[in-house]
Amino acid sequence: MNASGHSSSRIRNFVIGRRMAGWLKTVKKAPVTWLLLVFLWVPGLLTGTVLTGLHGSLRHMAGVTVSSLPAHWWVIVTGAFWERGLGGYLLGTALLLAVGIPTERKLGSLRFAVAGLAAQVAGVITVIGMVHAGRNLMGSWSAQLVTHSYLGPSAWVLGAALAATATLETLWRRRLRLLTFVLLILLVLYSGSFPDLVRLTAATAGVFLGPVLCGRAPRLSVPVTSGREARVLIALIVAASAVGPVLAGLLPHAVGPLSVLRFLFTNIQAVDPLTLQSLCADPSQVRDCASAQLQLRAGAGGIFMAILPSVLLLVVADGLRRGRRFAWYSALIIQGALALLAGTYIAAALMPAAPNHSPNEGLGAIDVSAYHHPLSLILPLLLPTLLVVLLLITRRLFLVSAPPKTYRHLVKAVLITAVLLSTVYVLAGLALAREFTPVPGLPDLLADLPDRFLPLGYLFDLSPAFFPQGSATVLLYESIGITFWTITAVLILRSFLRPAHNIHGTDSNRARNILKTTEGSSLSWMTQWHGNSYWFSSSGNSFIAYRSISGIALTLGPPVGPPAELHTTINEFVHHAADQGWTPCFYSVPGNIKDAAEDLGWGAVQVAQETILDLATLSFTGKKFQDIRTALNKAAKEGIHTQWVSYPEAPLAIADQIHAISEEWVADKKMPEMGFTLGGLEEINDPEVRCLLAIDDQHTIHALASWLPVYRDGAVVGWTLDFMRRRSTGFRASIEFLISSAALSFKDDGYEFLSLSGAPLARIKQEGTDNASKIPNQQMAALDRLLNRLGTLLEPVYGFTSLLQFKSKFQPRYEPLFMLYPDAAALPSIANAIGKAYLPKVSFRQSLSLAGRIIRHPAKSRNEPGQ
Asked: What is the pTM of this model?
């Protein structure tokens, strides 16, 4: 062999060796998964059942059934090593490779084996016990489950995978569990097979096993989530309610408790040739005969029209995910209509049949005899009704409006589409009239038009006047509705993609222009946040942002506008509030507004302290800045650097990490995010808001902070700190690192100051000051004590005092922020309004949780930055 041959051989051997080393490395990282894969294939290959599936006595000895215990107890483990045929083996292999390997690497081999085995055993035993115990309650479903068997590794893998979610961050743990359980519950409710139940119970067992295997006790608590995640959850529930009936219609042996909905919300009919022949031989069944023939010939198009309500619900679910108000109204209307339809069908199914009619005439009738008791049909009726209730309860989550005239244009486009398609149908129908039976005239085609836009089988009282016989007429007959609803769905989806419209429209734009061209405070950018209303002075040069809550006009910060108009602006707003029957209250305003209000005889109480860094003289030197320098040095040693981003334009990888960090913070608090003067994800979704990230070389975000611009006479002169979040497992001093880095960056850019903002209900007493001496009467002194007490009580949950103490590390200049009110008698109403402004979405359960945490945990300083 020549030299080149030896060289090629060595290269080939080297490549093969590298590949073998790679395979061995993969096997070493997930040995249990590969062992399961061997156990899955070897028995089937040795018994020759890979292609044929289990049969005879082997089926009873290997498959898990309701009667397996106690005689064949071993199958609760060995059932994982068999499948029903080649398709099952391939799917089981894909599941082990795609889910098993990463799960084992996350948990470790021993914990993976324990979690999978324990989850499968728990799942099988639980389902067997449930079927035996609920035999009388589950009716025909229980009788069907007795005939089913479970095989394969799916319960093992799902149980281990759900256990592994205990090691993930809050957001991804919630997402994976939510998606998995929605799918599994969907299969149980609609398909309802024995394996579906086993997989669901195994996954549930995995959720409880995960924390135990990680060394902590499992917790039974309702997770607290942001409004954004809550919208995603509701959208997912609506989407599942749309997919379920379709799934039941496509599965040939669906027996789940909600499987009857395939008769109500879809028109998927599986008609065998003998049934079709019998229908067409009976002159009284001419309509069902034609409907069945059309469905068989229409194919995918007919299925699309048959599942039209589900298609529309899926489209609407996307709008719900985006918080669109139009989607909420649409979902409410569709679910309400489905609830009425379900009630009508079930009432008709439960009514006794007429003497000369069979109880279940027609192709789409519900076979009540298939159910243990007709009253079991009530459960499916409850589903759309419960969804209507859910939508009504959560209506405040869906407030996003489309730009003006969006839906006017949508309706116009839909009507034009309908007119054009109707014209095409009538003209083409006249041209192809001889291919219909009987031959229709113009009046017949016009009368038939409404039916073309509805799914087959949804008109039960009137039989069609004619039927298509040729391929061209069948295509025409079916394509009109498909084309119309496809275009409509695309137009609706496009409306959801249009930029959200502020409910105040031009008022918000007008306020932003005044804000940029005149002068406000460091809090003035917060007036642009959702939920504020705007009042403009008679000159048009000033505005006040406020919220009308329970008869209180609660302002957010001071008036924005020329300082020369300050007194006039305040007087005009007070008169405006009086005309509306409101009590005005200025909240979080600086000392110059307090002085102006005192001229009106108003009371004042300090509610916060703003912390300000003067950038011209800023220098992190000396002993008092030791913590700051330590944070900067440690970040450099650990390879962590800063990166400025705009959240609306951030890459998906960065935006998703920001979302995950925020959700983790919310879940840790077990209370909803506060609003009003405290921003969240929705508030940083602004191109003029700057976000600074603490990010490492692996592109992992450790923390982030957002900065709001402060304008004066058309130029940005400073920035205000708002949104702060830190990853629980990230660099501990990341917030100190971010604030100090931002301060140095803004100083280099020539800005005047940096406001670290204030903390509600928190104050640090400074030397030489006496807050009590500034309280002019006993009522305000009592209010001051009440606010101090409230701040102390809320400290264990929101950490306002700890946050203010944390900001003191930067040696800021303190400026008091006040609440101004015209009448002490209105203080209870003002306190209620402030509470609702900060926590507008707090539930009764969360209120009890807040009270419990206050009682259990006395206030203490944690020196950890909060919101």
From this structure: 0.65
